[in-house]
Amino acid sequence: MSLLDRRVRGFRLIDLIAAALLVALVLGVYLAKTMAGRERAEIASMDRQIDEEQARIRLLQAEVAHLEEPARLERLSAAYLGMAPVSIKRDVGPDGLADIARTVMITGKTPGDEVAKAASEHAPLDFDPTHPPAPPTAPAAAEAHAR
User: 86 or 131, which is more confident?
Assistant: First the structure.
């Protein structure tokens, strides 16, 4: 009698092995389907989260666009800060910036309209902060020196 023909409680041994393998395969397929279902649910949840985040991003982009509107910013700056657009009289070319910087360094004051006008006409200033003017001499010392 061979191993395949041997009987256990009335069943052939090969039939019992085949039934055990069939049960193992059924359990394996069931577990695989269960895990795949869980992963599918997680993927669907992630897709919903992505859609919600994209909707939130679009909402925030629209809010930023509204907050950065030039007309709104101009209105708020005038109302709360007292700011207004710069007058065309204050426009200075690149060549006039050095003159304005010298004026600020020497006087400590922001130049007025006359300096902006002079700078826009590219008229150089008559002083140079890198070479300060000589201190005034006393008249007596100047006369003594002249003799």
Answer: 86
Q: pLDDT per residue over 63-96, tens digit each?
A: 999 999 999 999 888 888 888 887 787 778 888 8
Q: Using the Cα atoms of residue 70, residue 73, residue 79 and residue 81 in order, give the sign of their dihedral.
A: negative
CA distance 57 to 38: 28
CB atoms within 10 A of CB 97: 11
Beta bridge partners of 12: 7
Return d(Cα 128, Cα 103) in angstroms, integer: 9
Sequence length of the chain is 147
**Kind plus residue range of the DSSP H or E element containing 117:** helix 113-120
Is residue 137 a contact partner of residue 146, using CB atoms and an 8 Å limit? no
- What is d(CA 83, CA 8) in angstroms, rounded to the nearest whole number? 100
Spatial neighbors of 85 by CB under 8 A, at least 6 apart, are 74
Which residues have CB under 8 Å from 16's CB, separation 6+?
8
Residues near 13 by Cβ (< 8 Å), separated by ≥ 6? Answer: 3, 4, 6, 7
Tokens, residue 129:
């902060």
